[in-house]
Specification:
- The longest helix is centred in the C-terminal third of the chain and has 17 residues, at 175-191.
- The model has no long low-confidence stretch (mean pLDDT 90).
- By secondary structure, the protein is α/β, with parallel strands linked by helices.
- The protein has helices at residues 24-37, 54-64, 83-86, 103-108, 120-130, 144-152, 154-162, 175-191, and strands at 15-21, 42-47, 71-79, 95-100, 171-172.
- The termini are far apart.
- The radius of gyration is 19 Å and the shape is globular.
Length: 193
Amino acid sequence: MATKRLQQPQRSLKEAFLVICEGETERNYVDFLRICYHSPIRIVSRVAGQNVSQQLINRHVEQLKLGKYDKITSFLMYDMDVEEVNHRFSKCKAILLLSNPCVEQWFLLHAADGKEPMSSEAVITALKSSDPVWKQYKKGTLTFPQQSFLWQNRGKAIVRAKVMEPLANPSSSVYILLEKLEESLQRTSVQAP
């Protein structure tokens, strides 16, 4: 006598973005994006400092996975002003969101083109003078007016970043994360009934 098997409901693919950040500035920015995009994709930020490695990425991915069908896309959001960390990126399987010299270069691109090489300190000085909203900027924090400025001018920043030479000073590939978030929103809106 044959037994009837209950049909298991098909498990839908769960997707998450893991963004390993160098510091609090990057983490605060990623957390801000998570709120703005209202994405069905889970966006998790982790601060790793200069201890980035494939082993660290793997450990965080395993912590996020709920099932074997989950898809976790890993990103590294780092400044390129610390030379000893830069060589580790090539050994990591993750999408690189690098800013040269620092993440403030990405913020500056929301206000102005950046064409001349600068030090991290010079970028922060240029950011503070680029628009009144940045005058009181402090590393590690983003005020509501600064977040609003970043959101309203993200399209300009993406266009400006895409024409820069990758990894050169100045440059930023943070725009890749925004494009991936936009793609995920388009995918889910197409799939919705």
